[in-house]
Amino acid sequence: MRGKSHPSVVRRFGIGLAALALVATACSSNDAETQSSSSAEPEVDDAAQLAITPADGTEALAPNTPIQVTAEGGTITEVKVDQVVPAEAGAEGGEAEDPSLYEMTGSLNEDGTLWVSDWNLRPGAEVVVTATAENAEGETSELVHEFTTEEAVPGQRLELLSNFPSSGQTVGVGMPIVVNFDLPVTNKAEVENSMEVISEQGIQGAWNWPSDTMAVFRPETYWEPYQSVQVDMHLAGVEASEGVYGVKNYQLDFEIGRELIMTMHVPDHEMVVTVDGEHERTIPVSNGKGSRNFDTTTTGVHVLMERYESLTMDSTTVGIPEDSPGAYNVDVQYAVRTTNSGEFLHEASYNGNIGTANTSNGCTNLDMVNARWVFENTLMGDILDTTGTSRELEWHNGWGYWQMSWDEWLANSATGEAHVTDGSGTPGPVHGAQ
């Protein structure tokens, strides 16, 4: 494999001029020959000169190495990067991946003389970089480099375990983007910068890390309703921690639906629902009795999570053993989770105090009709904003991410910079130290 410059247009001009020079030698004086020969040389010398790094023929290159193309005497007009992972180095027994997930984009400087790849390379890939440039006369040059990248070691391949929401879902305006990895991430800034969020209506947002295996994106304010959001996770080749590389790219597409907000001041025994700013429904409720921290309904901005048409509420799942004070085991219908510590909106036909007193174990109890309405008319990502109790919702309890102010959320991200969702890119580099 060798990198060669191919100034094709220049070469054609060179051949034609050389032929004219031979004719002049046979029919004219020596002066004519000298003039014809000298006129050909500047055309060849004016060709744009291209250079590519990594070097042609490099083997087992670190996947997080950037590709750089430079041009002298002209401007870069195109850079094409082909990445092929042989079957034996690819996913084991999986479906063929969408090649469009691995199309390499790059950033070109203002004068068109430097191009740098935006993303990392696939591990275990055969890579071909084809660059073209053009000089002031419109003559083109081409340079090709071929090299291979290092394979990701089994047991050290970062992959996606799960994500919320899923592609195709419609969610509420408070929905975070939650990404769960199979291995811990220590190079968090590089991973954050490898995941680009693009929405129809651009907004500032940032990633945070509730744990080393979970990344969460939250906008500065609630999403604007009725728009599409896309998440391009360029994880292939990113070095998540020492020697651990991402092996796949992923794309997530979802919709933001109408704006549904529920507000509840616990002493009032009611929940008010608005849709797109208009009053929709007032629902009588019974909240936590508040005799201890456990049975106190949390104050704060809750994001609706998973839902069950029927569910057994069992105190042993939240650390209260059977037969101990406060233990319970009851079957309910139309349950919608609001925290990881056990709070739900749910039907509680057994509670005769709905609308008049707070007597639950911390959940928000509703009658059958209203519980079914909430179950059928709310979305994952809708907001329940609760006030009036002594127990504050922790930011990492469920999806309580709106409990942090925007300044706190941004400062707690690995990059410390806002990610604007208008398609302009992520805040920083994804490549390793060079």
Give an account of the 3D structure:
This protein is 13% helix and 35% strand. The strands form seven sheets. It has a five-stranded antiparallel beta sheet. It has two domains: 8-148, Immunoglobulin-like (Sandwich), CATH 2.60.40; 154-434, L,D-transpeptidase catalytic domain-like (Beta Barrel), CATH 2.40.440.10. It has five helices and 28 strands. The longest helix is centred in the first third of the chain and has 20 residues, at 8-27. By secondary structure, it is mainly beta. The chain is elongated and about 90 Å long. Mean pLDDT is 89; it is low at 1-44. It has helices at 8-27, 30-45, 188-193, 368-377, 406-411; strands at residues 49-53, 68-72, 75-84, 106-108, 114-117, 126-134, 140-148, 157-158, 160-164, 170-171, 177-181, 195-199, 204-211, 214-219, 227-233, 239-241, 244-246, 250-256, 260-265, 270-275, 278-284, 300-303, 307-314, 329-337, 344-347, 364-366, 383-387, 419-420. Helix 1 (8-27) runs antiparallel to helix 2.
Topology (elements, then pairings):
Elements: H1 8-27, H2 30-45, E1 49-53, E2 68-72, E3 75-84, E4 106-108, E5 114-117, E6 126-134, E7 140-148, E8 157-158, E9 160-164, E10 170-171, E11 177-181, H3 188-193, E12 195-199, E13 204-211, E14 214-219, E15 227-233, E16 239-241, E17 244-246, E18 250-256, E19 260-265, E20 270-275, E21 278-284, E22 300-303, E23 307-314, E24 329-337, E25 344-347, E26 364-366, H4 368-377, E27 383-387, H5 406-411, E28 419-420
Parallel strand pairs: 8-17, 10-18, 19-27, 25-26
Antiparallel strand pairs: 1-2, 2-5, 3-6, 4-5, 6-7, 9-11, 11-14, 12-15, 13-14, 13-28, 15-18, 16-17, 19-20, 20-21, 22-27, 23-24, 24-25
Helix pairs in contact: 1-2
